[in-house]
């Protein structure tokens, strides 16, 4: 059977190595659950299903296995501890005990995550002799954000239409919903915001609440809660009120009533995500109130229900003539301390908008009294849609590992987000989904790795990009060790390669207008100055780059002094970030030994060459990969190469009109 990518990393193909399979079989004589809650039932079914494929045998689920040996036991123990340390909530411990393999969780979900961890050992062909695994998620709320609309389109989605079939719900439940839930649970994702942040008010109508409740019913046995994005103006749009002012009693009552209605239908509803006063969306500022007034009103509406408000910090005022980099900080930093409990502020990884490389957002470390949700984008809006192969884990890690110095050295973004820097009891991370109705879910088959990597890093941000790439490759493509190495190597380098042929040296926001695809560095006028390219690259006869030092916009001052140190001197600023912070002369010599112009050309040209290298590496693993999938990726790589040339030529020729220098050897085209 050709692999059409539908099964993602849950393929469970038979273990071919007889010795290894026998070892596994010996350990998996039976499965004994410790109760029959829906989540534990899921755990048993998932384990049975996985083992059926991997071992080619039906492993029975038994009861009363106390005296039996040679099986896999579930144990839910709220007081469980490992080596004297209490096991974290939703964590798992897997170890041999009295001749059985015991998966212990403090919660039912912990057992479910343990089951997937055990299956992963088998899927990646690890030995299970003396197996002992312990893991607890570092971040509590691990969410996908769908930018899906009621009409079935997906904003910035490149994998077909929405997987939610609103017109069929609640009566028909597409089997795909369950497959989606399985995939998420297997990587620890425990929440999904089902609709676009540019939200329709419809989701708050009784008709849609019923539909969302049906989806919640599918997710629940997988430990996943559903959340909604809400339109701030809903009280006016569907509530018949004349205002949406958060301090108006009628507005408060309206939200309280809506919230109660939602919880009646969905008792474990997760909460609200809000994009307000951003890119034309309505918000509390329309009534002279601020973001905290809005968020707190919703928190009050949630009242005693166990729900969160996630309020997005992606804001920038219309017609800004300053530096967009600084705007979210200017609006949100003063609100630190004003947000009620269970209200989180959701911040994109960088200050502009999901560019292929951004310095970490200056709000991280600047709002110690507010739990911040890190928002990253899995859908490749600015990273080549579903055409370019770009493995995003290295990009996520770059943000997570960024040191804010908020509380001294080592106050990384990861530790701000997981709550450890400021001792927050709640923590969250969100990935804007790259999932659609395409048979293989993500359009580009390798895009699945970004969904996977997001879940794995949300669970444990200390995992390496390399380890996650190898794990995913083994589970999804092949267990052939040399091929795994080759593919993981291409994956890990792919993001840097993309940056080189599109936006090297810290260039940003020079892509095609509105569509956000392909190069358009010459774009000089648009509805807003910060929707052009020249606003960001500032190329002129002297040089290139946005001066964000004290001589320029001074955005650098938003960071702690030790963090500024990394970037504030053009001589020592890492070249990858140079043009984010400095306007550099064309003939200025960089730390690489080349002038800016020569380095720029070098990166564009070698970036394209590296795509050729990716093609060669991919060709070399052909025998190990399913033919259909291999051909699919081969075709996409061809397009990627063509478009890398397009980016290179467009950008080099455009910047040359400012630099007025020849393209250096050995890249110069023959005359
Ligand atoms: C980007 C994207 C929009 C989206 C926005 C957001 O600007 O292009 O489509 O709505 O981000 O995150 O709110």
Describe the structure.
Residues 122-441 form the Glycosyl hydrolase family 67 catalytic domain. Residues 8-118 form the Alpha glucuronidase N-terminal domain. Residues 442-665 form the Glycosyl hydrolase family 67 C-terminal domain. The protein has 671 residues and is an alpha/beta fold. The chain has an eight-stranded parallel barrel with strand order 9-10-11-12-13-14-15-16. The mean pLDDT is 97. The chain has helices at residues 18-27, 38-55, 108-123, 175-186, 206-219, 234-237, 249-265, 291-302, 327-332, 393-400, 413-417, 448-459, 465-476, 481-502, 534-537, 561-567, 578-581, 596-620, 627-659; strands at residues 31-32, 61-62, 72-76, 81-82, 85-86, 92-97, 100-105, 132-135, 141-145, 191-193, 225-230, 271-274, 308-312, 343-348, 372-377, 428-432, 543-544, 584-585. Helix 8 (291-302) links the parallel strand 12 (271-274) and strand 13 (308-312). Alpha-D-glucopyranuronic acid (GCU) binds next to loops.
